[in-house]
Amino acid sequence: MASLDTQSLLFEEKALHTPSLGEIRDVLATGLKSSFATVNVEVVECPDLTKAPFHLAGRGLNGSPTLVEIGGPPYLLPNVDRSKLYDLVSVSQRALHDTKKEFIAIGAGAGPFPLVNSNCEGMFNLRYTPPGTVVSESHLAVISPTDRTVTVHKIPNTETRCALLGNILVAEGKPGQVLKVSCKRRTGKKDFIASIRTCLEGHYGERTVGLGGVFLLQTGKAKQHVMSPFSETPINTEEELNEWLNFYDMPAPLINVGTLVTTECDLDLRLQHFHSFSTHGHGGHYHIDTTPDIVEYEGYFIVGERIVRVDKPVNTHKFGRD
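The line above is the sequence of AGAP006729-PA-like protein; the predicted structure tokens follow.
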């Protein structure tokens, strides 16, 4: 199946509030203490993210950082729309308003189901260099319909599609300063990303702040899901959705990529979305750690300058966004 013509898709764009990294550092250094026993937030030079333990396709996160939300759960639920296949390279180029820039695209979404002939989770992680070189460290997680086991596959350089929905950080991938967030032993009820997001929301209110990047679950386990094959019957409620999803406790280390925003910005946005992959065969949609007493997180984030909404569903709903 071919991807949709990117030029025919509706793109909506808004500027985000962009406080300094130092300001966000101070907000999180105070706010995260209500969620974790140990909190350390710094502004640092971005490490080389192509190296272990990150295994990203690009070295850094800087250079016109843009948050891109593609499609949405209404294209999956209650009934799947299999026509919703998007090319991440052309979507990213249009979002950046430039076809001649090198860029990275990292984040969470539905995987390219034609590649494995099944619905799957996508962990998108690629670098594009003009005029047409793609280096992909992307992965997908697919469920066996017979025994519910999960397998994680590397996505080849030749496959740049995502399906149905996606939350992607697009940037030039340059070195530079980033926000480093390290937390140990969760004492609150919210997951790592929700803890960050609600701290920022409480401070900035109606001013929309967005972050994108990568975090490591360094120790412990996380509750994650992997979608089943596309449902033959409509999924209309959260209860039906949870019966269709497959939940697992997956062990560290897990490499999570995705985005968060503090408000929907009148664009019907998903507030947070991170997917994980690993070097040990586990991966999926991150929900929360299940080992709060021993969990350790380390994340590197950049502040998004803009949010670009791609192919926003006309008929929408609010379930399936956890």
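Note on the example: The longest strand covers residues 161-171. The mean pLDDT is 97.
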